[in-house]
């Protein structure tokens, strides 16, 4: 949706950017020029579009002649910059939509981040005759389908908008919780929690995140972080509820209470979420294989694979890890609350810094911080006592929350806005296989070795993710490493 001519002219006069022939262009990002200073692009006059970049944000040669810059690439830049200026990036409707996305994420993705408490309960009650690895396949299928089906939900969102998809996803999720309360056999849990819950959550979470791309551009990292904070809030509150409900009312009514909380959140969320951009009739429902021709996207996909492998492995196995480490029952539930409470901060606060300093830059910083804590503190000392475990889980939660919120926004820098749903689904289709394997593999390691071996294994996977994200950033800068570029 392009702005009016008068609006574009007024905004461009404020920014002071002019092209030859009197054409105005607005460019909102920062670069690092030769003098070593951070400079708003609004204060600069020209910018070259590099064909290797899908977005125009990262041009680095700013010292070209204005009159020689008038060409077809600059005309493309003009159209794209006008589209950028059309994003509200705030206002009542944008923030209301963000609140609705937050509420949708609370009982859907939030339940998945707290699923470790459910998995540990059924592995010691209804499914006590099964191994940790066997029970882990149920939650693995749940999270796998949530991410894998995003490759289909993303283009469906582009084609039909958010409303009809959220109705279907909310009804399916509520039904899965109601049926889950009645489950007592392995195949019951697999169908109700794993399959139906996973399909429903795929619709809700993908639409809740993708709709924000209609309303936010410059603040997209912040908006994505707040939206993903809904899942952290759910992951912090749901274990505390289950800890009390399991003891007072048993399995059936505990899950029913969660089901009706979910219904209330879905109802409010549906009333608030709405799209802004017109639907696309040319959206495809397949993986965009051509996207993997870009090294940037390939490296980012590997990095996201490792992040999802670690995050959902820890979320699902943390209560079981606590039990094998010999700590108390309360720690099994409260550790998840600490993890997700800090994850909420990690999903929101880095969004502020990312919009100022760069999404990839903040993402790399969080990964390095978390890796140091995991390898130097959690691995040797994490199971020593309650206080140490809470401390390392809190730092891990903050860091991993930032991974979850910033990785989709980094993916958005690799494509046009109208392609975001498809690119998002393509990357997370790859990441889905990480969550499919992490719980069974981690459960087997935990049961056959020691808790320290599991943490060491996850630290090695995170190191691979760190290298992949660094390479993706390097490729995004045309294989020229620049430390202070906002990217």
TrEMBL record:
A molecular function (GO) term: transmembrane transporter activity
Residues that span the membrane, as ranges: 95-115, 135-157, 164-180, 186-212, 221-241, 253-273, 297-319, 331-350, 362-381, 387-411, 423-443, 455-476
Keyword Cell inner membrane: no
Domain Major facilitator superfamily (MFS) profile per the UniProt entry, residue ranges: 93-476
UniProt cross-references to PROSITE patterns, sorted A to Z: MFS
Name the record gives this protein: DNA, SC102
Pfam families cross-referenced by the UniProt entry: MFS_1
GO cellular component: membrane
Protein's organism: Aspergillus oryzae (strain ATCC 42149 / RIB 40) (Yellow koji mold)
């Amino acid at each position: 949706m392009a702005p009016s001519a008068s609006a574009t002219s007024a905004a461009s006069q404020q920014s002071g950017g002019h092209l030859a022939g009197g054409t105005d262009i607005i460019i909102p990002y920062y670069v690092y020029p030769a003098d070593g200073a951070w400079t708003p692009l609004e204060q600069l006059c020209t910018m070259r579009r590099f064909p290797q970049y899908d977005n125009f944000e990262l041009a680095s040669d700013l010292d070209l002649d204005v009159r020689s810059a008038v060409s077809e690439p600059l005309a493309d830049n003009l159209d794209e910059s006008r589209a950028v200026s059309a994003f509200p990036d705030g206002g009542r409707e944008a923030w209301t939509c963000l609140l609705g996305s937050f509420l949708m994420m609370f009982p859907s993705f939030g339940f998945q981040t707290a699923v470790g408490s459910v998995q540990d309960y059924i592995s010691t009650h209804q499914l006590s005759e099964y191994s940790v690895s066997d029970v882990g396949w149920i939650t693995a299928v749940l999270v796998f389908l949530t991410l894998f089906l995003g490759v289909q939900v993303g283009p469906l969102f582009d084609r039909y908008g958010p409303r009809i998809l959220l109705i279907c996803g909310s009804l399916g999720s509520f039904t899965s919780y109601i049926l889950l309360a009645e489950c007592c056999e392995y195949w019951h849990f697999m169908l109700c929690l794993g399959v139906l819950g996973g399909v429903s959550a795929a619709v809700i979470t993908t639409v809740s995140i993708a709709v924000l791309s209609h309303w936010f551009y410059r603040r997209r990292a912040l908006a994505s972080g707040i939206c993903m904070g809904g899942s952290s809030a759910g992951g912090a509150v749901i274990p505390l509820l289950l800890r009390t409900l399991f003891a007072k009312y048993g399995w059936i009514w505990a899950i029913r209470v969660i089901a009706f909380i979910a219904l209330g959140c879905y109802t409010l969320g549906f009333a608030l979420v709405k799209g802004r951009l017109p639907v696309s009739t040319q959206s495809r429902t397949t993986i965009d294989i051509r996207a993997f021709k870009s090294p940037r996207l390939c490296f980012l996909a590997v990095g996201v694979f490792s992040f999802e492998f670690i995050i959902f492995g820890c979320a699902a196995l943390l209560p079981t890890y606590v039990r094998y480490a010999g700590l108390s029952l309360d720690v099994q539930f409260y550790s998840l609350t600490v993890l997700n409470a800090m994850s909420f901060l990690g999903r929101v606060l880095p969004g502020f810094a990312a919009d100022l300093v760069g999404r990839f830059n903040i993402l790399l910083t969080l990964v390095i911080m978390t890796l140091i804590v995991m390898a130097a503190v959690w691995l040797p000392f994490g199971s020593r006592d309650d206080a140490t475990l809470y401390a390392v889980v809190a730092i891990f939660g903050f860091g991993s929350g930032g991974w979850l919120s910033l990785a989709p926004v980094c993916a958005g820098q690799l494509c046009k806005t109208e392609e975001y749903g498809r690119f998002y689904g393509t990357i997370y289709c790859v990441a889905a296989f990480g969550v499919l394997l992490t719980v069974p593999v981690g459960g087997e390691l935990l049961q056959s070795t020691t808790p320290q071996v599991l943490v060491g294994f996850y630290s090695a996977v995170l190191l691979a993710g760190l290298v992949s994200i660094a390479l993706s950033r390097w490729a995004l800068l045309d294989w020229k490493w620049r430390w202070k570029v906002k990217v």
